[in-house]
Records
---
Amino acid sequence: MIHADADSFFRIEQARDIPRPLRERGARAERARSGPLSKWICVICGYIYDPAVGMPDAGIAAGTAFEDLPEDWICPECGSPKSAFEVYEA
Ligand SMILES: [Zn+2]
């Protein structure tokens, strides 16, 4: 028991000194908010990007998360940038 307590205390001290675990926690939180297979909707024209389908005609493979689309990707319907999209809660 004493050994386990000392061990967890040591891990907490480590986390304070090494920023990497904090960054990993932040990345996980971001994925949980939208989700890798969330649909995204264009607020301008209503086009819905479904990562389960992707855009095979545009070279976007099925299973490509919206977050993984190129930064210069635009809405195929109205040409709006990725910033015009928000998570679509079906
Ligand atoms: Zn659009």
---
Amino acid sequence: MESVGLKDVPLKSLFPDAPPPPGPNAPKLKVAIVGSGLAGLSTAVELLEQGHEVDIYESRPWIGGKVASFQDKDGNHIEMGLHVFFGCYFNLFRLMAKCGVLENLLLKEHTHTFCNEGGDVRELDFRFFIGDTKIGAPFHGLRAFFTTPQLSPADKLANSLALGTSPIVRSLIDPEGGMKDVRALDDVSFADWFKSHGGSQASIDRMWDPIAYALGFLDCKDISARCMLSIFQFFATKTDASALRMLSGSPADRLLAPIADYIKAKGGRIHTRWGCREVMYDTDASGRPTDVSGLRLTKASEEQIVKADVYVAALDVPGAKRLIPEAWRKDAFFDNIFKLVGVPVITVQLRYDGWVTEMKDEMLKRKVGAGEGYGLNNLLYSADADFSCFADLALTSPVDYYKEGEGSLMQCVLTPADPYMAKTNDEICAEVDTQVRKLFPSAKDLNMTWSSVVKIGQSLYREAPGMDPFRPDQKTPVGNFYLAGSYTKQDYIDSMEGATLSGRQCAYAIVADVDTLAQKAAAAKAAKVAA
Ligand SMILES: Cc1cc2nc3c(=O)[nH]c(=O)nc-3n(C[C@H](O)[C@H](O)[C@H](O)COP(=O)(O)OP(=O)(O)OC[C@H]3O[C@@H](n4cnc5c(N)ncnc54)[C@H](O)[C@@H]3O)c2cc1C
């Protein structure tokens, strides 16, 4: 745990205290969770540890939601998206530690790499040593921003002015106060905030836009300052927060299967291919929903009604909009969810017969089958391509992606994906391939040997200015119905960490209500017997 910086855990709102273990006579609830993304899995783990009975229902054939991956008929691992773990993923690391999979994370060099057209690679380098002494936050960050060759001296100066007058500075001495200031910047775009603090458009173009696209799939003029600054305050105050890790292989095998095993070992059950079609509920005299009474689920032509004491919708935004009964929208709490929208994103994998990012050594570039790959082994950003971030998975996550006799597996995240959504997979791959070669001209004579495209019409919720108030709490106005999901109210951005945190918040809200929920469950059972 030390190695992933849990010693550095931040504010309570970002890392809540777990409730004490249940006493011997603590009530045991039957909980039905819809959705097996990280939010649903995290909720399940917490509730199982509190002694409750948990069933997870997932409409897809596999678990994991947006983190999922699956193998095609030829054994290629297809991912929903490129997933990178920042050093400040305290809730996710805690979950991974429970499931014994922290060692599946590979730590990359502590630098953020920008790949410009023509093979021009420049770093935002957080590695700061004086002699053998590692210098940490905030000095490593200050040095990284002062020395990065990605920006001109004037832009670096303007950058420092903007960041030096941001809530980040308050966070250094007063983390709660800094977070409050960050939350208050939800109404303004990062671009407007940054420029009003002296930041330059050139910095946005060359550095901040690729980062904003990577974080929220939006550019700086469309993303809220809250979203960006909530990450940067971590980067500034926690030495390892900006360090990047990637899974050693596919998310299905290296992350999700071990979490599923942990859930099953604790008595939890996961039912894939069971999609929830309807939430059934009781109403009061005025027609207001009081409690959920069951879920109607289908699997192909089969149907079942699931009854539980507590129901959790651990969904993405489109899933939540489909499931929430229309009548519930009379309550602003639920209607607000319909104001949130998802951002389209496309993940493209391109396999080559050599090493795309190995630009120095012609022999290594062609050397396949040596049991290792060559080139840039990190997350890569670019301001000169339609994919803002990308990585060679054969290098970063070699366990499942390195293949003997083959070269790079470039995984590129197209954002904004809107202009590409209507194109064919072949067209998309051809355009991404052209752009890869523009960034790495030394790869011009390599052949693309395989490709895959995954389009997600609505992925992350659009963290645009002013959207935060529409995010729902985990506890809802309907008695035994709770929400989880990265889009629900939590202080981190829409991410794996945000999803895991939302699951913890959801489970702890249920635990806080356990006595009332148990009484209601007992009353419902008694009424059923009487009937
Ligand atoms: C391309 C891409 C790249 C990303 N990169 C990163 C990254 O580098 N780092 C990072 O931290 N985050 C990243 N993210 C974000 C991260 O994946 C998400 O924030 C997180 O996984 C969301 O988890 P969730 O559980 O809230 O929702 P989801 O993962 O969307 O899970 C919701 C689940 O509910 C299921 N469901 C929906 N409706 C029903 C129904 N009616 N019945 C049953 N099941 C249903 C869905 O099938 C899905 O499995 C990325 C996302 C994408 C798309």
